[in-house]
Design brief:
single chain; 203 residues; mainly alpha; Arc Repressor Mutant, subunit A; Tetracycline Repressor, domain 2
């Protein structure tokens, strides 16, 4: 069993490092400043994580965990629903809100900037976060097709259509607009319009 003090220090370091890397990028990040923000010693950071690169990799763990939780919930919802329209509106709103309002957009912007330095990390992130969500959507649409709720000949393509209909243009805008996230009511309005279009194609 891990020492609770170590766990608290680890959590504080990850939180401080996440905000610091998102604000300054990898090259501009400073371990001394992260330590000061987390209220731990620089030695503690090196003892727990091993260095700046390992700490950078660690901040992705929350993104992977978020994608895993969302995918698990979405798979259960699409696998059991009888009201596919309501479920798709709920899934689309949660997906767009999670990506556009939280730290996900900032993390993607950071990874895009560091893709040449850490190509395997960018590839891993795509597979375990947005790629996982797309795969889960495809599996859910296949289930809906088998139960007669949707007509989906190509579940993978349908998943891409759904993802881009509910947040495509908003995501592109958010990647370049670093200050103001879109309002929740605007996100919901666009999600509903996207779901309406999706259902006209796949009902």
């Amino acid at each position: 069993m891990l020492d609770p003090r170590v766990e608290r220090s680890r959590a504080a370091i990850v939180a401080a490092a996440t905000e610091h890397f998102l604000r300054h990028g990898y090259v501009g990040a400073n371990v001394d400043e992260i330590a000061a923000q987390a209220r731990v010693s620089k030695r503690t950071i090196y003892n727990v994580f091993g260095g700046k690169e390992q700490l950078f990799r660690e901040i992705l763990a929350d993104a992977f965990a978020t994608a895993e939780r969302f995918s698990t919930d979405m798979a259960a919802a699409l696998g059991t629903t009888e009201d596919v329209e309501t479920e798709l509106r709920d899934i689309g709103t949660k997906l767009a809100g999670t990506v556009l309002i939280g730290p996900v957009v900032r993390l993607r912007r950071l990874l895009i900037g560091e893709a040449e330095r850490f190509p395997e990390l960018a590839t891993d992130y795509y597979a375990r976060a947005p790629g996982r969500v797309m795969a889960t959507l495809a599996h859910g649409f296949r289930s809906c097709h088998e139960r007669g709720l949707l007509h989906v000949e190509n579940p993978e393509l349908a998943a891409e259509h759904f993802g881009f209909l509910v947040m495509g243009a908003s995501l592109d805008h958010a990647l370049f607009e670093a200050t103001t996230p879109p309002a929740a009511d605007l996100i919901e309005k666009r999600v509903h319009a996207g779901v309406d279009t999706f259902l006209r194609a796949y009902r």
